[in-house]
Specification:
There is one protein chain. The chain is an alpha/beta fold. The protein has one domain: Rossmann fold, CATH 3.40.50.360. The termini are close together.
């Protein structure tokens, strides 16, 4: 059993998504002390933006690095991602990581009927934090492009992600505490890792 833990917030110790992703990994691994945990902090050690020569299998250091990122993802049974909303979408750090795991012929393929996801069988849990309130029916809902994009991109490679959202965290200490408490309760309700 391998858990891949990804953080992408630039907020350091003040980050809501980092707190929630750590809580999620702690909850899941408590029930599976045999689990191997791999950790990648995309803010502390940023990944370069992806270019075509970085594709695994090419003869370059960046290609070899891409292969390492892809292998970490493919070897994981569960992936836990801390994802803050920045400027209405995911951080560029997280986008750079995702660009290295969405690889034609490995995590998806194109066929006569369209795209087919090849990365199914993995569990992806995303802890999404938002300073504002973007849920359906609010004035800011049309500006939300992180949750929707994450569902689409993981769905494209064959995974239906589980998303836990803490929003309104910028509306003062009480709103922040309430958002964290709601997300923490949802984390407590997550199903345990499969045996």
């Amino acid at each position: 059993m391998t858990i891949l833990h990804i953080d992408s917030s630039i907020s350091g110790a003040n980050s809501v998504s980092r707190q929630l992703s750590a809580d999620t990994v702690a909850k899941l691994s408590a029930a599976r002390p045999d689990a191997t945990i791999l950790y990648r902090d995309l803010a502390a050690t940023p990944i370069n933006h992806y270019v075509m020569t970085d594709k695994p299998g090419n003869d370059s250091a960046e290609s070899a690095f891409s292969a390492t990122i892809l292998e970490e993802f493919l070897s994981a049974d569960t992936i836990v991602i801390g994802a803050p909303l920045y400027n209405f979408t995911v951080s560029s750090q997280l986008k750079a990581w995702i660009d290295r795991i969405v690889i034609s012929g490995t995590t998806f393929k194109m066929g006569a009927e369209g795209s087919v996801g090849l990365a199914g069988g993995r569990r992806v849990i995303v802890l999404l934090s938002r300073g504002g309130v973007y849920q359906a029916g609010t004035p800011w809902a049309p500006f939300e492009h992180a949750e929707t994009w994450l569902r689409a991109i993981f769905g494209f490679i064959g995974i239906e992600p589980e998303l836990i959202v803490a929003e309104g965290t910028a509306y003062g200490p009480d709103a922040r505490a309430g958002a964290i408490a709601g997300a923490t309760a949802a984390i407590a309700d997550l199903p345990a890792l499969a045996a």
